[in-house]
Every structure is written in C-alpha cells, then in structure tokens.
Amino acid sequence: MSNVEEDPAELACGGVAAAEPEPELLQPRSVPLGGPRAMLVGRALPNRDRRMVGAWCFTDFYGPADITDQPGMQVPPHPHTGLQTVSWLLEGQVLHRDSLGNTQLIEPGQLSLMTAGHGISHSEESPADHSPILHGAQLWIALPADRRGVDPHFEHHGDLPVATTPEGRATVLMGELLGRTSPARTYTPLVGAELAIHAGATMRIPAEADFEYAVLALSDVAVNGRPVATGEMLYVGQGPDEVTISSEGPGRAMLLGGVPFDERIVMWWNFVGRSHDEVAEARAEWERDRTNPHEESRFGVVRGYADPALRAPELPNVALRARGRTRYDS
Q1: In this protein, which residues make up the domain named Pirin C-terminal (predicted)?
Q2: I need a surface site. Which of 98, 146, 232, 271 has the fewest CB within 10 A?
Q3: Does the structure show a pLDDT above 50 at 268?
C-alpha cells in the first residue's frame, strides 16, 4: 500500500531504546488513499509520540467500507525501498500486481508479504467483481541496515498456522506465538498475529521478555483492562509477562511486537532509508523510471494496471533527518 499524500510529512523512526512512558493510546489520523477516488484509512503508526513497535513502522486500518457500485481500493503503481509490506484482509478482496511479475488476489485470512529490499513497485486495487464490503489492514516492517538492500521478493501464504484456546484463536502472520510459527520470512525478531476473541472472554498472550508490544483494535476491545476502540492502537510496552485482550462481544485485534528497533530511520513517502540523500536518490530514480519505464530499472514495471504510476511528491525544503523511534529519544 502507498502513502499517497501529496505533501507527506517526514516520518523519522528508529533509534536506541530509551526509558519508556506508561502504556499509551495511539489515536489514528484519517488519510485519503488513492487520489480523487480515495477511500479513507486510519493511520495509527507512525504517531506523534511513538513511531515504531519493534520493526513495525506503519499501520493503516480501513473499513468496513461499503463499496457497492464503487471502485473501492485503487492505488496505482508506486515504489518502495527498505521495508516489507504486510497485507491482511478481514472482508473483501484486493488484487496485487508488482514489478517482479506477480499477480495475486488477496482474500481474508491470507497473508501477502512483499519485501521491497533495494527497490520494487506494485499496485493494489479492488477487482471489478469485488465483494460489497472492504475491511482490512496494511502494515510496514522496517528492514535492518544490513538487509535493506536485499533482492525484492513476494510471498503469499494462504494457510497460516492457527493456535486455538478456550478463549479464542490466534492466526500467526509473522514470527511465533503460542507454539505456532509463521512461514513468512522475517529479518528481525518480531511477531504479528490476528486474535479472534470469543464474546465475554479474555485471551492471555505470554510476552517475550525482550519484546515490546502493541495491540491494534479491529473491533472494540480492552487491552490489559484498558478500553481500546476500533482503529485505535494501545502501546503496551516492554516488561509485562503477558498481554490480555478482552471483548464483550465477539472481538478481533492485531497483536504486534518485536525487539525494539535500535536504528535511526528516515521514512518519507514510500521509502525507508537512513539519510536524506538515500531517500532523495530513491525518489529521483522512481521519477526517472516512472517516466521512462523499463524492466531493468531499479523499480521495474507493473503490468496490467489501467492508470499511470504515481508521481512522487516534492521533497521538503529542509533536509530529512533520522530521529529516534519515539519523540523521547529523537
């Protein structure tokens, strides 16, 4: 998924872990996705105070949106560097195309994971015969410095491991949880899982001592006893022995966690880098590739999408600066 803001702010993330505040509620901001036919998404990460949870650096939550007789998601070809994109649907379908030649229909309960590495481009759209409801999440994972230049690749996992408890079930997208391990490729220690909680139940998730955690509410839930409304994220932090998620009715949430990311990162538009020059170079190469597309270019060519590729926004008038993973260690 693209950050399609025409004037994107500098989103600087990463940095050595510092003393953390108390658990904090991260309110999403509304962002239009997809130009003039845009649908709105809620973006909880990066947030004003907290920019990362482990290596997770970006979360968009959308829907449930009624897209009957509407185009739904329409994101033209756009570039990425230095990250992985995680696509997760609760309802509906999204058609992924990328510059490696992959075309994949994504449906609920299936993980599509794209590793950008040194450069890739892709498009995302609701297919012509789409379902009436679109509901899901898109997340990014920052790649560590020594792996951010890997060859780009794409994975689709239609049969993910599921751990069942008397209180609900956990579908493991990334990493390991409750004795189940995802087949998805990771580059830092982390976990990502969707939790389905039975009505009136409380799921108890054992926590890794060196992980920090957050919970993105896909419905109204309570996390460690604190109410979290749909689309909000509660940063739990590092140290508790467990994370508890409760729901009065049938509930859903995403558990995200990982070892605190100890690198300073500049994230601007759809690029994750370590300096202004690195991001500026990626932008310039995308503009060159976009206007003169060819298969051997850094970002390649996405075939099959009807509209032109996205133009990169102008860089800000001041140099992009890598800062810390929170505003407390900028």
Answers
A1: 194-290
A2: 146
A3: yes
